[in-house]
Design brief:
single chain, 337 residues, alpha/beta, TIM Barrel, 2 domains, eight-stranded parallel barrel, 14 strands, elongated
């Protein structure tokens, strides 16, 4: 259920509606648009049956949201949400370019990469300090030392940092060093982790699970929103299909589809979506043409020595060319990089 207030409704009128909602042990969530204030109700709304909200002063109408993802839906908020991360904004005219290595391996590697991608036109730095690996014997990341290196790279080159959080026990630690949480595909339905990052106000990059539907992906976002954190960026990173020619099947149709269903920004990860260096450039261009608000690319100064995903990482010169080519598409669709 959402309650739409009249354009000139006062703060007192809005507060009165929220107070009534709280009387029933439910949580009101206020969304202020350019002209209208909307109050979303979180919890079991059935107990509100019979409460005459439409008769409350300042209320224009009461609407039932049939979609299970209430706060993420366009019914709750018509305008596109802008998610701010440091000096970067997701969801505006500018397409956010995020780049960096799969894993933080050492100080020289991450500082060299940060400098190179900044010069190439990237706006944010990505890198894993805690790595989910298929094999328990593979490199698992440097932990807090890696986070410190990412923070140093940010402070040196002015690039906000996004890094993956794997466990509820790591949320506070990563919150201390990073500018944005990444929820990886394997954790998309780790509901306790979603709740925990939802309790922070730090932006969250939510990757689509490799076998998840769009509805399930949006419901995962709802967990974060329902816990108070509206700063969510959706990220398409490929799904598992019967096709074996690529690492995953990059579902670019999900970009305009999801942007029609939700007010949240949508990013694309062509690196993991294809797993093939030769496809990263064309899929980046296609992602922007489809309406992506951000593009994530793995970049490593020496992929041959990378401890993870070296075979799908671009070198800085290749990334510089990718940014130039992707910028042409951005301009063609009325956006910038």
């Amino acid at each position: 259920m959402i309650i739409v207030m009249k354009p000139k409704a006062s703060k007192k009128q809005v507060d009165h509606v929220c107070a009534k909602i709280k009387e029933y042990k439910l949580l009101p969530h206020i969304s202020k648009g350019k002209e209208t204030t909307i109050i979303g109700i979180i919890g079991d709304e059935r107990i509100l049956q019979g409460v005459p909200f439409e008769g409350f002063s300042g209320v224009e109408k009461v609407m039932q949201i049939l979609k299970p993802y209430k706060l993420a839906s366009r019914d709750f908020k018509k305008e596109n949400s802008i998610v701010k991360c440091g000096n970067v904004e997701f969801g505006g005219v500018k397409v956010v370019m995020i780049a960096g290595p799969c894993s933080v391996e050492n100080r020289k590697q991450i500082l060299t990469t940060a400098k190179a991608i900044k010069e190439a036109g990237a706006h944010m730095l990505r890198g894993g300090a805690f790595k989910p690996r298929t094999s328990p014997y593979a490199f698992q990341g440097l932990g807090e030392e890696g986070l410190k290196m990412l923070a140093e790279a940010r402070d040196t080159y002015g690039l906000p940092v996004v890094t993956e959080v794997l466990d509820t026990r790591h949320v506070a630690l990563i919150n201390k060093y990073a500018d944005m949480f990444q929820i990886g595909a394997r954790n998309m339905q780790n509901f306790e982790l979603l709740k925990e990052v939802g309790k922070t106000q730090k932006p969250v990059l939510l990757k689509r699970g490799m076998m998840s539907t769009v509805a399930e992906w949006l419901m995962s976002a709802e967990y974060i929103l329902a816990n108070g954190n509206m700063n969510v960026v959706m990220c398409e990173r490929g799904i598992r299909t019967f096709e074996t020619a690529t690492r995953n099947t990059l579902d670019l149709s999900s970009v305009p589809l999801v942007k029609g269903l939700t007010h949240l920004p949508v990013a694309v990860d062509p690196t993991h979506g294809t797993g093939k260096k030769s496809l990263i450039m064309p899929m980046s261009r296609a992602a922007v043409a489809a309406g992506a608000d951000a593009v994530l690319i793995e970049v490593h100064p020496n992929p041959e020595e990378a401890l993870s995903d070296g075979d799908q990482s671009l070198v800085p010169a290749e990334y510089r060319e990718l940014v130039k080519e992707t910028e042409k598409i951005a301009k063609a669709v009325g956006r910038t990089i």
